Amino acid sequence: KKSPLLWIGFNLIDKTAGNIGTIEDVLQTGNQWLAKLTYQNKEVLIPLVDQMLDSLDIKKKTLHVNLPAGLLEVYLD
Q: For residues 13 and 70, which has the higher predicted lDDT (pLDDT)?
């Protein structure tokens, strides 16, 4: 439950943007975990930090997050 490696295949759902996509991989950079997924045909890396995590539903395979404003737009420019 605590290891982000177990979240591969989960749907990442943002409070504002809605369903962002399926977590394809999880990477560790130092002490931080990043979820790798495809959003609007672009590869994005989303930090998996406690401040942004809202809820995790193992049965439904969903991870609800509250991303900072503008984070996804950085990838779309």
A: 13
Mean pLDDT of the chain: 92
Distance, CA of 24 to CA of 11 (rounded, Å): 10
DSSP labels, the chain: ---GGGGTTPEEEETTTEEEEE--EEEEETTEEEEEEEETTEEEEEE--TTTEEEEETTTTEEEE-PPTTHHHHHH-
Which of the four pLDDT bands, split at 50, 70 and 90, describes residue 3? confident
Residue among 34, 36, 33 nearest 21 (CA): 36
